[in-house]
Amino acid sequence: MDYKIIPSVCSYCGTGCGVLFKVLNGRLVGTLPNKTHPVNQGKLCIKGWNLHEYITSCLRLTSPLVKVKGRFHKATWDEAIQVAADHFTSIVDKYGPDSVGVLVSAKMTNEENFLAQKFARAVIGTNNVDHCARL
Amino acid sequence: MTNSIGEIEDAGCVFIIGSNTTACHPLIASRVYKAKEKGARLIIADPRRIQLSRFADLAVTHRLGTDVALLNGMMNVILRNGWHAKDYIEKRTEGFDDLTKTVESYTPERVEIITGVPAGDIERMAELYSRNSPAAILYTMGITQHATGVDNVKSCANLAMLCGNVGVPSSGVNPLRGQNNVQGACDMGGLPNVFPGYQAVTDPNINETFSKAWGKDLPKHIGMTIPDMVSAILDGKLKALYVIGENPKMSEPDRIHLDHALKKLDFLLVQDLFLSETAQVADVVFAAASVAEKDGTFTNTERRCLRINKAIEPIGGTLPDWEIICRLSSAMGYPMEYESPEAIFEEVRRLAPRLYGGMTYERLGINGLMWPCPTTDHPGTPYVHKDAFARGKGKFHAIEYLAPVEVPDDEYPFSLTTGRMFCHYHSGTMTRVSPHLDAEQRRGYVDIHPSDAEKIGVKNGDMLLVSSRRGQIEAPARIRDNINPGTVFVPMHFGGRPANVLTSSKAFDPIVKIPEFKVSAVKIEKLQEA
Q: Which A residues 3-32 touch B at CB under 8 Å?
């Protein structure tokens, strides 16, 4: 049996409560509050205590999907990435970079947000970058 | 937040306006309870009587969208009684004379007429807030999601500066942010006008720095906000959209209008954990890994950068968002190769040095660091504007009250407000698939006052039809006396009864384009008995 406790941060609201993920044999089985964390001091709300439930939901997507004639088909990463890259490239060629918008995410990490806006600005060539801060 | 979460405990007064703190930020609410235990005075101003109202020294329920009038009324009383921080105003602020002139006409009697809050309560709020320093203001979308959102925030700042409550421990103007990394998304330049670290894309020197760093000539004009993008799609100018970890079909105002726009796109790419309402209409969906399946950092509402650590392997064939973006970028001829999230963080440190320069993964540890943290020996910054404001002097803005865009009329006689509830989260994508949270509340509802329910002959659980100028939803009535007569509340989480069918995309703040989710005019009809 391999049991681990990994410190992390809750991904619901903006409070930033310290959590501990309970991992049994490589599977996420529970969430605990971090007793010594400066933000939540060993407590969690109902959403935090159940944080692992959405992560391990059977409704999670497990592979990229590409829509063909109105229906989704499972694709490999290489295929799906290529389809997206081709669409963006041809739209930028035809209508210019400002014909593309990128919505980055208040749910992603700092590092991922950094890359997403870098993708919009340096790869697409547009400042059409926004996210749900207003919503 | 200008101040940190822990400081709330030591405030002399906590003033909460437009935040249902126990439901939406429970662990910040627990600091408010602790402050109360330590003797702080508590003021609540909210259109609903919230859980914290029971423990408040004074709780008022002002009419939707009358925040500026209420705050001006408090400042009127403070100035009349000479309770303002005269030295602080003299040394640290500007624009005080204009403010004085404007708030002069907001007498408690006049403000009572606008807000519905008794004049005596306005006097008492002013006294409690100004006579119990340090006083902390906490707010959320109840202040910002208005056509006067910027005015509302500036009015909170006016009140705080008037009483010397900025740049002092346990005080401040403290927006409680609603998403785990909305602070970080802004910090990282996830906005149309700034690069990481709030550096303007239009500034030639900054633009050059980033262009050099990324080996590409970067665009110099400000891009579009989300509402601008929706209009541009309908005008045929925006052809493709890449949506990451967001469900605009649930979270944007005026869903029917948005649906039209999404259908018009040539290409929609959605990157998400789930096949959300928005992902269902995409052309390509990228399956992303969750918080437990990767390393990285989040920055919370108090500007504290915190590490997340990989606990399990990505589920199924998913990939972390950073790896997906790297692959897409490389496939488009711009190779993005990073060994790890830490390598990306090192680039953030170099390009946003004022805020993040002094942070390393090692220094962040478990407790994190609060920005600004410019050097590796800097301890981080629990509260900002300490000796001077970021802009030098704190600026008072003289602000007049403006009524919400939609006020009730004969055809739409009720005011609708929207928000979250304790067991669900935002568009519901995460909580509706969580068995324990789903069990708490499975369907949407309409909170309505007993006197209104009686007028239209409605009992608890009866099915109602709620209509606005945009659309209509059906949901059961929940009769509650914590809401004012004439006002109804609909939670935003439930796909089958989406509140955003009712809200308007035409009513928004002219400066920051935030939609007026908190006030719409609606009519209510009974459909069917329970």
A: 4, 6-18, 21, 23, 26-28
> Residue length, chain A?
135
Predicted pLDDT of residue B248: 86
Q: Are residues B290 and B366 in the same domain?
A: yes
* Whole-structure pTM value: 0.94
Question: CB-based contact (8 Å) between A70 and chain B?
Answer: no
The H-assigned helical ranges of B180-285 are 182-187, 204-214, 226-234, 248-251, 255-264
Which one of A60, A72, A126 has the shortest CB-CB distance to B219?
A126
Residue B419 forms part of a structural domain: yes
Contact A35/B at CB under 8 A = no
CATH class of A3-55: mainly beta
Tokens representing A11 are 């991904």
pLDDT at B497 > cutoff 80: no
Contacts of residue B296 in chain A, CB cutoff 8 Å?
Answer: 109-112
pLDDT band, very low/low/confident/very high, at B429 (cuts 50, 70, 90)? confident
First to last CA, chain B: 45
The model's confidence at residue B487, banded by pLDDT at 50, 70 and 90, is very high
**Containing domain of residue B213, as a range?**
182-370
Share the mean pLDDT of chain B: 94
Q: Which residues of B touch A101 (CB under 8 A)?
A: 223-224, 229, 232, 238, 240-242
Over the stretch A101-133, which tens digit does the pLDDT of each residue have?
Answer: 999 999 999 999 999 999 999 999 999 999 987
Please give the ipTM for the structure prediction: 0.97
**B433 HSE (CA, 13 A, CB side):** 18
Residue B414: which residues within 8 A CB-CB, separation 6 or more? B408, B452, B486, B487, B488, B521, B522, B523, B524
Structure tokens at B394: 């704190």
Question: To the nearest whole percent, how much of chain A has pLDDT over 90?
Answer: 97
B237 and B365 in a single domain? The answer is: yes
Range list of β-strands (E), B227-332: 240-244, 267-272, 284-287, 296-299, 304-308
Q: Do B218 and A122 touch (CB under 8 A)?
A: yes
Which of B441, B436, B425 has its CA nearest to residue B23? B425
Domain ranges of chain A: 3-55, 65-134
- Strand runs (DSSP E) across B71-214, as ranges? 93-94, 135-139, 173-175, 194-195, 199-200
